[in-house]
Amino acid sequence: MNRALLKAHLAVLTAVVIWATSFIALKVAIGEVAPMVVVFLRMGVGSLAFLAMWPWIRHGINYQTGDWKLLIGMTLFEPCLYFVFEAQAIRFTSAGQAGMITSMLPLMVAVAAYFLLQERNTLRQWAGLFIAVIGVVWMTLSGTESEQAPNPVLGNLLEFGAMVMAVGYTLLIKHLIQRYSAFVLTALQSFVGTFFFLPLALASGWPAEISINAIGSIIYLGLVVSLGGYGLYNYSLSNIKASTSAGYINLIPAFTLVFSMLLLGERLVSTQWIAIGIIFFGVLLSQDRTPKRPKEKEVATA
User: Fold this and answer.
1) Which residues of the chain have a pLDDT value below 50?
2) Cα–Cα distances in Å, from 234 out to 21, 239, 289?
């Protein structure tokens, strides 16, 4: 593995770790602040950061007739509907179990792309994805109701709805990324999300006081997760294929469970540790180890 390829794999792995911690930050923030208020503030913090960066990223735009339909669809799927589902999901399920559901995304995208975009994966990659999903299902069945997950079935269904929105977003992004830079599209998501969630936030109850932990969590979600996570993930696509990068998403539930145990006091049973090992094996098996060809147009998932 050459140096550039190694850096790309380390970048996407770091992005996955950041995304795994986002469930912890969201759980902490929603413990004190209404879900729609948290999402609005998160979008607002991200928008301010992108406004500061706009002079450097505004050149990554190549608008073509009819793109407005794709751009509206993209922002409707994510962040609008995606965060409506996820913010509600985290109220009923634990951060660890919510993270488990995200590993379904690569398989869902692969199936949708197979039928809609005629994309192909190798048999080994399909096998790896299915093995990883088996690990996720095992972890889900091993979980029990707790203070952190008062209604895990409802919460997990809502998180699955968020993944459906993410699939629609990914399929649209595959077209848009050829004419717009990843940072421009992410900035657009933050701007639209801020306006979309403003009335929902105003209609929600605002707390009289917010702890430093909740404030820090919201800032972390808006800056580190939005800028750092997506930036590293998009950097990885300069040297490896999108399907390879997307396979790393299967690691999110494993990392989320570990962080939930360390930071939120959630506990893992022995069978869940075995399931984590299965997920790691499935991700390793699903990786395409050939460098990305320069002529290929690949896309980041969010």
Assistant:
1) 294-302
2) 18, 10, 18
Exposure letters 254-269 (e unless 16+ CB within 10 A, then b)? bbbbbbbeeebebebe
Q: Look at residue 44 in the predicted model and tell me its pLDDT.
A: 95
Beta bridge partners of 61: 180
Do 264 and 148 form a contact (C-beta atoms < 8 A)?
Answer: yes
Instruction: Answer left, alpha or beta for residue 143, where phi above 0 means left and psi between -120 and 50 means alpha.
Output: beta
Instruction: Tell me the three-class secondary structure of the chain, residue by residue.
Output: CCHHHHHHHHHHHHHHHHHHHHHHHHHHHHCCCCHHHHHHHHHHHHHHHHHHHHHHHCCCECCCCCHHHHHHHHHHHHHHHHHHHHHHHHHHCCHHHHHHHHCCHHHHHHHHHHHHCCCCCCHHHHHHHHHHHHHHHHHHHHCCCCCCCCCHHHHHHHHHHHHHHHHHHHHHHHHHCCCECHHHHHHHHHHHHHHHHHHHHHCCCCCCCCCHHHHHHHHHHHHHHHHHHHHHHHHHCCCCCHHHHHHHHHHHHHHHHHHHHHHHCCCCCHHHHHHHHHHHHHHHHHCCCCCCCCCCCCCCCC
Give 291-300 pLDDT, tens digit per residue: 555 444 444 4
Q: What angle do CA 149, 170, 33 make, to 5 degrees?
A: 35
- Single out the residue of 87, 13, 20, 5 nearest to residue 255, CA to CA: 20
Contacts of 275 (CB under 8 A, 6+ apart): 135, 136, 138, 139, 142
What pLDDT score does 140 carry?
65
Name the residue among 164, 163, 186, 166 with its Cα closest to residue 71: 186
